[in-house]
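=== Structural record ===
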Amino acid sequence: MFMRVDRLITELPPPAAQDPNAAAALQELLGGKYGEMSTLGNYMFQSFNFRSKDKLRPFYSLVASITAEELAHVELVSNGVAMLNNGPEKKNQDVKPGGDPSLTPHEAMKEIRLASAFLSNGGGATPVNSNGASWNNDFVTTTGNVIFDLLHNFHLECGARLHKLRVYETVSDPTGREVCGYLLVRGSVHAHSYALALKKLTGVEIEKMLPTPNIPLSKIPECQKYLDEGSHRRLYTWSPGDYKEISGIWSNDEVALPDDPPGPLEVVEGMPDGGKMQQLAGVPSAFTPDYAPEEFYEIASKLYKKSR
């Protein structure tokens, strides 16, 4: 089962400007072939279908714990997409009614790359790629063969890294770049962990192929604070008591990748502290949460006070 916490996995800076085209680029990291929906879908269903769990506990625990982090990554990218679509929030922007719709307040939206992000989703994210094509089950591999599935996951993380780097090179807004920087560090951890799992099972030192592409994380400014705090050496259990067996794979006799700051690998029980959840203030002229939402706010306020 899963537990949900009302925080993002990391803090995101506010966007410098409204940039729906940057949001469309970021959608590739959500619903693209190597996006977070794919890593989530692969690891989640592999963990559901994992055979001989008790006999292969360290390997099952690895896939299961990373599944939970991938769900947090889906949430992070989705928030980044919505923030870029909506732009910097203004004080009380969601208080007054939406104004005169005949003045075409959103005329510019017909020119953006992914018009459906506004027309259908009100600036929100959905599981589609940068061209609006839907993510689908064809991107999920779950064979039941432990070597094949781990090798596929290693491939998936390398592909995800390539796509994150390319998206990073297309966006300049601090929100989009922070999403990319954080995911590059954590994706590197997951690729490394799957490589070590394969080495434990086969003796093949596949971690020597990392990083792929072979650009160090130190070249990405937004990765630096995560490297400085040691995030590249940490794997989380995402559970208060389960999945500790990952320490048999992500263990103290293994160290950080050569291009990253040195140090032993570390298993952390639980989850990261994370950062604040984004408010994503409404835009009444786009009918989010509605054209004149004051009554809804009053009702919600009364219900909130009643719950305390």
In short: The radius of gyration is 21 Å.
